[in-house]
Design a protein that fits this description.
CATH superfamily: Metal-dependent hydrolases
Radius of gyration: 16 Å
Shape: globular
Largest sheet: 8 strands, parallel
Number of helices: 11
Order of helices and strands: EHEHHEHEHHEHEHEHEHH
Number of domains: 1
Strand order of the largest sheet: 1-2-3-4-5-6-7-8
Mean pLDDT: 91
Low-confidence stretches: none
CATH class: Alpha Beta
CATH topology: TIM Barrel
Distance between the termini: 9 Å
Strand content: 15-25%
Helix content: 40-55%
Length: 244
């Protein structure tokens, strides 16, 4: 069965985590049967938008198994707009990513709302990585304000995974990405039952979490093989308009 990993990173982190380059990532994918992987730049998440996004563009060029996210930051509206324009013109970039913990901007701030307006023309999924319940509430507000945009809640929100699933259940334009460093088997089944497996996608968060760690959450879930297949590939194919 083909697997699509909808969330990974290329580059170094300021923590004791092994960095991944494109070659190393593809070896890891092969080991676990991951056929396609969507990646963002760690450097861009930490603030160097232009250099980080450019590094991802160069890394995924000529590698059909790798797809890119353009990292944007509402603190830098014009630069983020330029980056989105440059990246999303390329067919191998499938979405954008905003990380509140690094940006220190609420998802419903005036700057973020302005940035979301500028992104509407591209019709690409927007990955939001909430850290707190307040972040989740902000996601709910912007999802209601921009009903035609697709928002992806990244990660399991640690102990707040039930609140994250509840938020996704209330908005048809919100997708739940299961994976990351917080393993909660029941969250996968709960999300699948609450919002449907067509709105639950798999993302490892590698190298911050090992793919086998996140894969175990899906494979150990009390779901049928068909539903697991949707989570591991079908829902992502539909969301990003790609093939496994």
């Amino acid at each position: 069965m083909a697997i699509i990993d909808a969330h990974a990173y290329l580059g170094r982190w300021p923590t004791p985590v092994a960095a991944l380059d494109a070659d190393e990532l593809e070896l890891l994918m092969k080991q676990f049967g991951i056929t396609r992987c969507c990646v963002a730049s760690s450097a861009a998440v930490m603030g160097d938008l232009a250099a980080g996004n450019r590094a991802v563009a160069e890394a995924i060029e000529g590698r059909p198994a790798l797809l890119g996210y353009c990292v944007i930051n509402p603190n830098f509206l014009d630069l983020s707009t330029e980056e989105a324009t440059r990246c999303l013109r390329q067919p191998n970039f499938v979405g954008v990513k905003i990380h509140a913990a690094y940006d220190r901007q609420p998802f419903d701030s005036l700057a973020t709302r302005e940035l979301l307006k500028r992104l509407m023309r591209y019709d690409r999924p927007i990955l939001l990585e909430p850290e707190t319940i307040e972040d989740l509430e902000a996601v709910q507000r912007v999802a209601a304000e921009y009903p035609t945009e697709k928002f992806v809640i990244v990660g399991m929100m640690r102990d707040a995974w039930q609140e994250a699933v509840q938020l996704a259940a209330g908005r048809t334009n919100v997708v739940f990405l299961c994976g990351g460093a917080h393993a909660e088997r029941d969250a996968v089944k709960h999300a699948s039952e609450a919002i449907g497996p067509h709105r639950v996608i798999f993302g490892s968060g590698a190298p911050l979490a090992h793919p086998v760690y996140a894969l175990g959450m899906v494979r150990d879930a009390d779901l049928s093989a068909g539903l697991k297949d949707r989570i591991l590939q079908g829902a992502a194919c539909r969301l990003f308009g790609i093939r496994p």
